[in-house]
Amino acid sequence: MPSLAGFLRVRAASVWSGGAMPGKGKAAAKGPAESGAAAGPVAAAGGGSVRVAVRAKPGARCSAVTDVTAEAVGVAIAAPPSEGEANAELCRYLAKVLEVKKSDVVLEKGGKSRDKVLKISVSATPDEILEKLKKEASS
Questions:
Q1: Sign of the Cα pseudo-torsion (58, 61, 62, 68, in order)
Q2: Torsion angle of alpha carbons 53, 56, 62, 63, nearest 10°?
């Protein structure tokens, strides 16, 4: 019994003191997020496509780009957030704003979240896409 108690004391001390436990630490979690945030809401995705981070606001009177921040592009969507209606309207609206085919705009992440990532398969630079979104937000 004494050996088991000693083992438990040593084990508890290493856990509570932040001892060498493998896994993700705060530094590992910050690395990719900081590099993505520095690039802004629009980034190259490889293969001639561009990724756009979107903060969706469903249930609006009309679809519009509301703001462009360092984290995401705010888009008000004129569709209810049920049965994928808002997602379809978001893809349709951004295809119109960016002057691309509807089939070129695909929801990559965030089907049931307000924070979404859209992949746009078009031969345009992220800067060109960002300029179009900013122009739409200011009008």
A1: negative
A2: 20
pTM over the 0.85 mark: no
Does residue 74 contact residue 136 with C-beta atoms inside 8 Å? no
Residue 42 structure tokens: 């629009």
Q: Which two tokens stand for residue 20?
A: 């060498």
pLDDT in tens, the chain (139 residues): 455 555 445 444 444 444 455 555 544 444 443 333 346 899 998 888 999 999 999 999 999 999 999 999 999 999 998 889 999 999 999 999 999 999 999 999 999 999 999 999 988 899 999 999 999 999 8
Residue 60 near residue 78 (C-beta atoms within 8 A):
yes
The CA distance from 124 to 42, in Å, is 11
The C-alpha atoms of residue 66 and residue 97 are separated, in whole angstroms, by 13
